[in-house]
Specification:
about 500 residues; alpha/beta; N-utilizing Substance Protein B Homolog, Chain A; Alpha-Beta Plaits; Rossmann fold; 3 domains; five-stranded mixed sheet; about 10% strand; binds S-adenosylmethionine; methyltransferase; RNA binding; S-adenosyl-L-methionine; RNA methyltransferase activity
Length: about 500
C-alpha cells in the first residue's frame, strides 16, 4: 500500500469528529489550486501567463496565485529534475501541478503549507521532503554554471504606459508612491549608447526604473519588481508588455484617425498599445477566431479603456470588401513562440534541441504554411500597410514566409520597407529584403525574440495621396464609440476583389 493510501485509511478509521477550526486551518489556500490551474493551462497552451492571470482580475488572491505559479516556472528545470527522483504517483489521483507548486514552496517559499496535512499532494511532498531537499542540494552543486539556475543574464521587465488611464508624469507619481526611484541616464547631455543602456538596465535595483532607449511609452524595471507593479497592472495604468512586441506598433507609423485591423488580436496586447498611442482616436477592428481568447481579450481591453470593434472570424474568411479603407493590417498569427525566452514556461527548453526535434520542425513547417496563408489572404484587403510579425526565432516562420509570399505573387503590389532604420538588429538569411526586417532577441536587444516585416502598398490610389504626395489617412468618421460588429464602409467597393482568398489551401496547422 502506498504511504498516501495508508495515511488515507488511517484518517478514515478515526471516528472522532474533527475540530472544525482545525479543519479550516488544514485547508490548503485556494490560491494553490488556482495557481495549479494556471500551470495546467499554460501546459495546454491555453494562453500566456499574463492572459491567464487576467482571469483573476479583482480576485484578492491574484498576487499569491501569480507568485506561486511564477515560482514554479522560474525553477521548473530544477523541479523537473527533482521529480524524476521521487516515487511515481497516480496522476489521476494527485495533481502534478499542485505538487510542483508545493515543491517550489518547500525549496524557495514560505513552507507554510506543511501544516496542511489533510491534502494528499501535501502528504506526498512531506513524505518526500528529505529527498527533495537533498536532490536540490545536489542539483545546485552540480549546476553552478547553469544559466537557468544562477542566471547569468539579469532579467529585466518592460512595462508600457497606458495613456488611456494615465499620462507619463501621472504614472511616475504613482511609481514614486510605490517607492520606485527613476534613474535618469545621460552622458553630460549626450545620448548614451545602446550598449551603455543595456548595461544600466542590467544593473537596476529592485526599487529603480529607467526610461526605455527606443520607446517613449516604455519603462524598464528589474524583473523582481514585478510583484510591486501588479496593482498598476490590474487597474490598467500599465501593461506588462515586452518591448519587442512594440516594434510592430512602431512599424505602423500610427496617425490619428487611421483605420486598423488587428487580424489575430487576442489577447489584445497590440490592440491595446495602438489605442493607447492614438488615445483611441482611430478605428480598430480587433479580430480573433478563438472565442475563448477573444473573450479574455475583451476583459483586458475594457480594463485598459480601449475602444474597438470586435470580430471573431477566421481571418481568411473575412470578406475584404467590407474593409476597403484599411490603413494598417496587422498580422500577428499563431507561431511557435520560440522567441519568448522570457516566457517562463519555455525557460527549461533549449532552443537548439527544440528546433532539431522532429516534431517541432514539423510543427514549424505547418505553422509556416498557415502564416503564409494568412499573408496571402491579407493581400486581398489592399491595405496601405501590412505589418507581419511573430514571436518566433525561426527563419522558417519569418523571412522564409515573406520570401514565399513574393515568389507566389510575382505581381504583388507591395514592397518591403524598413520601418525603423535606427533599430540595431535585422532579419536573417540571404534575401535581398533581410536587412529591411526587424528582429529582436535577448542577446542583441535585451528583449524577447521577435520578427517584424512591413509591406507597403506600392501604387496608391489617387484618393490616398494628397497634394503634397503624402499618404492621407482616409477614415475619417472615427466612429469608434462602441464595440460593434463592423458595418460595410461605402467607399471603394468597386476596386475590391470580392474574394476572401480562402481558396488558398490551409492545412491543419495547430
Ligand atoms: C500570437 S497570438 C496574437 C497576439 C496578439 N496580437 C497580441 O499582441 O496580444 C495569435 C492569435 O491568432 C489567433 N488566430 C490564429 N489563427 C487565426 C485565424 N486563422 N484567424 C484569426 N485569428 C487567428 C489565435 O487565436 C491567437 O489568439
Amino acid at each position: 500500500m502506498s504511504p498516501i493510501m495508508a495515511s488515507k485509511n488511517n484518517r478514515n478509521k478515526k471516528n472522532v469528529r474533527p475540530d472544525p477550526k482545525r479543519i479550516k486551518r488544514q485547508k490548503l489556500h485556494k490560491a494553490y489550486y488556482s495557481a495549479a490551474n494556471v500551470l495546467w493551462q499554460l501546459n495546454e497552451k491555453s494562453g500566456s501567463l499574463n492572459s491567464l492571470m487576467n482571469r483573476f482580475t479583482g480576485d484578492k488572491c491574484i498576487k499569491m496565485i501569480y507568485a506561486l505559479a511564477v515560482k514554479v516556472l522560474k525553477n521548473r528545470d530544477i523541479i523537473e529534475q527533482i521529480k524524476t527522483k521521487l516515487p511515481d504517483f497516480d496522476t489521476n489521483t494527485l495533481n502534478s501541478y499542485l505538487i510542483e507548486i508545493l515543491i517550489a514552496e518547500l525549496l524557495f517559499g514560505e513552507k507554510s503549507f506543511l501544516k496542511y496535512r489533510r491534502k494528499d499532494e501535501v502528504q506526498y511532498v512531506i513524505e518526500n521532503q528529505q529527498k527533495i531537499t537533498d536532490h536540490y542540494a545536489n542539483v545546485k552543486n552540480s549546476a553552478k554554471d547553469n544559466v537557468s539556475i544562477d542566471r547569468k543574464n539579469p532579467w529585466i521587465r518592460y512595462i508600457r504606459i497606458n495613456y488611456l488611464k494615465n499620462s507619463k508624469s501621472e504614472l511616475m507619481e504613482k511609481l514614486k508612491k510605490l517607492g520606485f526611484i527613476h534613474k535618469a541616464y545621460n552622458n553630460n547631455g549626450e545620448k548614451i549608447s545602446f550598449d551603455q543602456f543595456k548595461a544600466l538596465a542590467s544593473s537596476l535595483n529592485n526599487d529603480e526604473f529607467i526610461f526605455d532607449y527606443h520607446f517613449d511609452d516604455v519603462f524598464v524595471f528589474n524583473d523582481e519588481s514585478t510583484k510591486k507593479l501588479i496593482e498598476l497592472y490590474e487597474n490598467g495604468s500599465i501593461a506588462m508588455q515586452d518591448k519587442s512586441s512594440l516594434l510592430a506598433i512602431e512599424a505602423m507609423k500610427l496617425e490619428v484617425n487611421m483605420i486598423i485591423m488587428d487580424a489575430c488580436a487576442a489577447p489584445g496586447m497590440k490592440t491595446a498599445a495602438i489605442a493607447s498611442r492614438l488615445n483611441n482616436k482611430c478605428t480598430i477592428y480587433a479580430n480573433d477566431k478563438d472565442k475563448k481568447r477573444f473573450n479574455d481579450m475583451k476583459i483586458l481591453l475594457s480594463r485598459n479603456g480601449v475602444k474597438f470593434k470586435s470580430l471573431t472570424q477566421e481571418f481568411t474568411q473575412i470578406d475584404p470588401i467590407k474593409y476597403p479603407d484599411l490603413d494598417i493590417l496587422l498580422l500577428d498569427p499563431s507561431c511557435s513562440g520560440s522567441g519568448i525566452n522570457r516566457r517562463l514556461e519555455y525557460n527549461n527548453l533549449s532552443i537548439d534541441n527544440q528546433y532539431h526535434n522532429d516534431n517541432v520542425t514539423k510543427r514549424c513547417e505547418n505553422l509556416a504554411k498557415f502564416q503564409l496563408a494568412i499573408l496571402q489572404s491579407a493581400l486581398s484587403f489592399n491595405a496601405k500597410r501590412i505589418v507581419y510579425c511573430t514571436c518566433s526565432k525561426y527563419q522558417i516562420e519569418n523571412e522564409n514566409v515573406i520570401h514565399q509570399l513574393f515568389e507566389l505573387n510575382p505581381d504583388i503590389n507591395y514592397e518591403i520597407i524598413d520601418p525603423m532604420p535606427e533599430w540595431p538588429y535585422r532579419g536573417q538569411g540571404d534575401y535581398p529584403f533581410s536587412s529591411l526586417c526587424l528582429r529582436a532577441d535577448y542577446e542583441n536587444t535585451m528583449t524577447n525574440g521577435f520578427f517584424c516585416c512591413v509591406l507597403q502598398r506600392k501604387h496608391l490610389e489617387s484618393h490616398d495621396v494628397d497634394n503634397d504626395g503624402k499618404i492621407e489617412s482616409d477614415n475619417k468618421n472615427n466612429n469608434n464609440d462602441d464595440e460593434t460588429e463592423s458595418k460595410t464602409p461605402k467607399k471603394n467597393k468597386k476596386s475590391r476583389k470580392s474574394s476572401t482568398a480562402a481558396n488558398f489551401i490551409i492545412t491543419k496547422y495547430m
